[in-house]
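Quick illustration, no need to memorize.
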Amino acid sequence: EFDFGATNAATGSYILCWCQASIRPCLRPEDFNFYVGKVRVEAPRYVFPACTAKEAVFQSWRAWETFDDCCCNYYEAGAVGCF
């Protein structure tokens, strides 16, 4: 699994295309003409402190994927702060 990191793209599915910059400048959309595959952009499941706006329901400790996930899990468990 590969992680492109944070993005401002809208959630949804995208087609990923490639341009070989060693043979052309890759400046126009039509330069990216080699199909690589699909990319799906998903919204984060846990965003701190937004997760504190809803009722805290602690189910269990989970394996945290992000710092926000950790903070939200601690909030669910009854912690007051996360800094």
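The first strand starts at residue 12 and ends at 18.
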